[in-house]
Specification:
Layout: H1 2-7, H2 19-33, H3 35-44, H4 49-65
Helix pairs in contact: 2-3, 3-4
Length: 73
Amino acid sequence: MIIFSGTAGYLDDVPRERVADFERDLYRWMDVQAPQVGQLILKERKWTDEVEKAARAMIEEFKKANPYGEAKA
């Protein structure tokens, strides 16, 4: 999920020194707030359009609830 977050641009505004925190907190969020995303990945066993849509929605909700500040130039 962290690789998808990075390649999809969700880490662009996360300071480099906070990426590990983002990753840890995202997985915790996924376990508690969005377990259906992990269950869908296990069910599909591949990255489908449905998995991507669920992942994007989860990450966007996570980022709204957990701001990580602006990246430093």
